[in-house]
Amino acid sequence: MPHATKRSNPSPLGELALLERIRLRAAQAPTPELRLGIGDDCAILRPAPNEEFAVTTDLSIEGRHFHLDWHPAESVGHRALARGLSDLAAMGARPVAAFLSLALPRDLVQKPKARSSLGSAARRSAPAPFIDRFLDGFLSLAQAYQVPLAGGDLAESTLAVADVVLTGAVTQGAALLRSGARPGDLIYVTGNLGGAAVGYAYLAQLAAALKRDRSRSRLKELPRIPPKSMAVLSPHLYPKPRVAQGLWLARNAMATAAIDLSDGLSTDLAHLCAESGVGAELDAAALPIAPNANAAQVLHGGEDYELLFTAPPAARVPSSIEGVPVTRVGRITASKRSISPITLITPKGAISLTPQGWQHFS
């Protein structure tokens, strides 16, 4: 982040004051890899002698990746970091440091003003600013995965944008790649599929109902979500990156290729097939289906952040890795000369599965 040591009478809304708030919240001792964090023009990282860095970056843009009137600010922060953590998991990399650049409208930094009709007691209990709640979600997940916030940038903007860069460490030559799958390998996925798409659809219903409710028309975001709804919404609002599972696969040298399921099973498996120069067959009956998910959500929904990986038939892939179920869902075949490299095997026969997950500019 920009230099934040000049603290002479900063404005309550000024960049230096906000930087200091973030710095205090993210404060922690240097790690073996992070030699210098927030406070200077650059962070300093140093990998171990037998390791190399994996680096990933992800944008979260208002109106595209999140909606200010749908998503709790804590979820926006959580999801912004979870995306990159999932990329590291797919490479079998251990998180080392995070960098967060934020472009925010001024009203997302200020403490929200309570309406006068609510009375003085309500004004005293006005909610925390978006930025503080965003950091609650971001830093809580960072702490859970032991990844320090090492720097970033701030800017005022008409649109809310979070740009997250993550570095991870992996043993030299041991990174999991998309390009190693070979015909005959078996295909596995962690967890279940479609849960994030179910949660997103339900969140959209809640937002539509709120919009129709004129009595809540002044609210800028959804009311606090009832606990009974969180079981449905959590896979979308608070996904769990499979870092421990990716580290286990890299450590045991079991996977020939891997990718995280961020854009949807059909699209991400097609990416892996393209990089490996192979085709794939999926067994529809074997797919692990999240509660209430339909076929389209399972195959194309995206944002489950599970791992898909391939392994030779002789590999002893366990039924669970670090407490998360693992399911065999298909096999790798020779490259197909067709529009889609994936064949879906169903009780009614085999069909070509066209990738229909998320693609920007499509």
Describe this structure in words.
- With 362 residues, the chain is of the alpha+beta class.
- The chain folds into two domains: 15-171, 60s Ribosomal Protein L30, Chain: A (2-Layer Sandwich), CATH 3.30.1330; 186-198 and 237-352, Phosphoribosyl-aminoimidazole Synthetase, Chain A, domain 2, CATH 3.90.650.10.
- Helix content is 30%, strand content 24%.
- The chain contains nine helices and 14 strands.
- The strands form three sheets. Strands 7, 8, 9, 10, 11, 12, 13 and 14 form an eight-stranded mixed beta sheet that branches. Strands 3-6-4-5 form a four-stranded mixed beta sheet. Strands 1-2 form a two-stranded antiparallel ribbon.
- A hairpin with a 2-residue loop joins β11 and β12.
- α2 runs parallel beside α7 (243-251).
- The radius of gyration is 22 Å and the shape is globular.
- The two termini are 34 Å apart.
Relevant terms:
single chain; alpha+beta; Phosphoribosyl-aminoimidazole Synthetase, Chain A, domain 2; 2 domains; four-stranded mixed sheet; 9 helices; 30% helix; 24% strand
Estimate what percentage of residues fall within beta strands: 15-25%
Secondary-structure class: alpha+beta
Shape: globular
Superfamily at the CATH H level of the largest domain? Answer: PurM-like, N-terminal domain
Count of domain modules: 2
The average pLDDT score comes to 87
CATH topology of the largest domain: 60s Ribosomal Protein L30, Chain: A
CATH class of the largest domain: Alpha Beta
- DSSP, total strands: 14
Q: How far do the termini sit from each other?
A: 34 Å
Q: How do the SSEs run, as a string of H and E? A: HEEEHEHHEEEHHHEHEHEEEEE
- Going by CATH, the architecture of the largest domain would be 2-Layer Sandwich
How large, in whole angstroms, is the Cα Rg?
Answer: 22 Å
The portion of residues assigned to helices is 25-40%
| Largest β-sheet summary | 8 strands, mixed
> Which ranges are low-confidence, i.e. pLDDT below 50, for 5 or more consecutive residues?
2-11, 114-124
Number of helices: 9
